[in-house]
Amino acid sequence: MSAEVRQFVINAIAAMNYPIDDVDADTPLGSAGVDLESLAVAELAVRVEDAYGVTFTDEESEQMAAMTVGEFAEAVAQRAELASA
Q1: Which residue of 27, 35, 60, 72 is 20 to 30 Å from 11, comparing CA positions?
Q2: Comparing C-alpha atoms, which of 70, 79, 56 is closest to residue 3?
C-alpha cells in the first residue's frame, strides 16, 4: 500500500503545481526537496485525509515538511491500515 500512497502523494504534489521531475521516495517534502510551503503541506494533508480516511494534527503537519515523500507515504499507509482494521 505504501507504493500506492507514494504515487498518490506525487500526483497530489503535481496537481498543486509543484514540479515532480526529480521527485522520488527520498525527496524531502520541505525546503530541501519539493519545497512545499506550510499551506501546501496542509493542502497535501487534506488531500491524503480525504483519499485515505486518516487525520493529522497541526503539530504533525509541521513535522511533515521534514519528512521525505517515502516517509510520509509510509506514515499514511500505516494509519490507513490501522483505520481499516
Answers
A1: 60
A2: 70
